[in-house]
Design brief:
2 strands, 2 domains, 170 residues, 61% helix, mainly alpha
Length: 170
């Protein structure tokens, strides 16, 4: 059983079937015809610039334009028009990307450390030792946090004192 859409507006497609009394054997939307002509002209220009031009090159341009038009046509519908697809493609191309590679460059010999002994692996740390070290780190972090809070409060108090003293002078 096939259920059709109840949206009459979108059921009607803007399709040119061809000249009167001589319809085409295929259906193509108006945007597909325009896109095909633009792509054909672009491909023919590129072919003329780089490879010369003849009958077979023209046919390859037509085939390429048909393939590209069909591929782009699959992306276009009444909910996603050609302008939206083009804007999306441009945003994809020009979006800033996060760099995945590190900064490369040369290094001088002064930056390379040379030791007489070969580095040895450190002794394995027991679970109790790891817990003790973790507790020490947490204690240090909480001390630093309280120190930062106290410094921020002192800075706020000094700023308030400066404001009130400036206000009293006037």
């Amino acid at each position: 059983m096939k259920v059709g859409t109840d949206d009459e507006v979108h059921r009607v497609d803007s399709i040119w079937l061809g000249p009167p009394n001589a319809t085409f054997p295929f259906r193509a939307r108006y945007i597909a015809w325009g896109l095909f002509l633009v792509l054909l002209l672009a491909l023919m220009t590129l072919a003329r610039q780089f490879m010369g031009f003849g009958f077979f090159m023209f046919m390859w341009c037509v085939i390429g334009a048909i393939v590209l038009t069909r591929w782009i046509g699959k992306l276009i519908n009444h909910e996603r028009p050609f302008g939206a697809v083009l804007a999306m493609a441009m945003r994809e191309l020009y979006t800033p990307r996060r760099r995945t590679q590190g900064v490369s460059g040369s290094t001088s010999i002064a930056q390379v450390r040379v030791r007489r002994e070969r580095p040895r692996p450190s002794a394995p740390v027991s679970r109790d030792e790891r817990r003790r070290l973790k507790a020490l780190r947490r204690a240090e972090e909480s001390q630093l946090a309280t120190q930062r809070k106290a410094q921020a409060q002192t800075a706020r108090q000094q700023q308030t004192n400066r404001r009130t003293s400036a206000w009293r002078k006037h």
